[in-house]
Write a structure and sequence with these properties.
Layout: H1 2-70, H2 80-97, H3 103-116, E1 117-118, E2 128-129, H4 134-139, H5 162-183
Helix pairs in contact: 1-2, 1-5, 3-5
Amino acid sequence: MADMTVVLDVVKTLAAVAVPLVVAVVGHRLTRRLKLWEASQWRNQELIKARLQYYGQLAPMINDVMCYLTFVGRWKELTPPEVIKIKRDMDRAFFSVAPLFSQQAFDAYQDFVGACFSEYTGWALDARIRSGFVRRRQTQPDSWDPEWERLFTLNETHDIDQQDLAHIRAQYNRLLAALVEDIALSEPRIRYATTDLVVNAH
């Protein structure tokens, strides 16, 4: 009976010691996990802030390219060399920070640019605009430079296809949606113009 009492006392003592130890271990692990979670949240917030900052730089250039290619917005204010320069600046801005964005955004960017420009046309040659110049030349009769015509993929005898305009618009919407999803914002307002782009362009 005395032995049983001793055993019970030992068990009680071990239990009394074990409880604080278990509580301490569990508390330490919870604190560590909380700190890791907080660090992860901070990194995510910083990433979103960085993405938002670069989105603010990229979005106006992307919009200018879309407007010029689809004859909406301020397209008449831009010259072909300016559009090529916007494309070059846009590429530099995007590819320098591409690792901050998702693969979905990267693919959408490349598809949008591919729909708007013909790239790698020759050594040291600029990309060419996937469109025609006739309608643009008509809107700038006094300032048009015939040298600009080589910057387009279509010549005077080829019409601009309405399906091509719709495709550019679809790629633009897809790119904005991908960038905005990376920034964790709500769905963007992507319908700044009707889908029926009525254009008589050559």
